[in-house]
Amino acid sequence: MKEKKSEKKGATVLRFERRLRHPPEKVWRALTDDSEIEAWFPTASERVKTVTEYDPPRVLAYTWGDQMLRWELRPAEGGGSVLVFTTTKASATLARAA
Question: How far apart are CA 85 and CA 83, in angstroms?
């Protein structure tokens, strides 16, 4: 498990990398199938999303409210998959929320 917080052009960027035991195809379904999403991310349908990048089964990126969410997926050595999740939010928005 790797985590990193950084600043980029006035925005806060959080990056999480996780190794999962599930194959990439199963993880991709969990990221893209509405019924799967609702099982782990119940507020997914409450915000309007605009897809900004879609490269199945490797990359999915979209805006979610005032954030940019990016999911990167690759096979892991020895089985399973590696999921990298990055969220970017304007620092001014974070300051208002604090």
Answer: 6
pTM > 0.85: yes or no: no
- Helix (H) or strand (E) run with residue 22 in it: none
Domains of the chain as residue ranges with CATH: 2-97 (3.30.530.20)
| Percent helix, percent strand, percent coil in the chain, to nearest 5 | 25, 50, 25
Is the pLDDT reported for residue 95 higher than 60? no
CA quadruple 34, 38, 39, 41: dihedral, nearest 10:
120
- Residue whose tokens read 């498990």: 1
